[in-house]
Specification:
Blueprint lengths: L10 H17 L2 H9 L4 H27 L5 H25 L14
């Protein structure tokens, strides 16, 4: 995948993208949405905020499905799985952001393009 980012990203862009992914662990879609709406001038940060936002929406849908499935006791097992997968992919996104790489969550819904 060709990227339109500069060959060397500045450290501020990497830091903001890192904060977006870490913030997604604790505050769901809120940090990604704020950065997505504010940082229109930085292509890398905009891209990573969009990806984190799409992932946070996917996780919220996963939590909703786990809650619905809890009535038949499968959701009791699904809820911790969603939490663990969210943690893993957000940490992977944070690591990629520190390296200045574009990270894509494999099965996130791409609702925001």
């Amino acid at each position: 995948m060709e990227s339109s980012y500069p060959v060397t990203l500045n450290q501020d862009s990497k830091n903001v993208a890192l904060l977006v992914w870490i913030g997604t662990i604790f505050f769901s879609f809120v940090p990604a949405l704020i950065v997505y709406l504010i940082k229109k001038d930085d292509g890398y940060v905009q891209d990573q905020a969009r990806e984190a936002l799409n992932w946070a929406i996917t996780v919220m849908i996963g939590f909703l499905l786990a809650r619905i499935l809890a009535y038949i006791l499968i959701g009791v097992l699904a809820y911790p799985v969603v939490v663990l997968v969210n943690l893993i992919f957000c940490v992977m996104g944070a690591v990629a952001a520190t390296q200045g790489k574009a990270f894509r969550v494999p099965f996130a819904l791409r609702l925001i393009k």
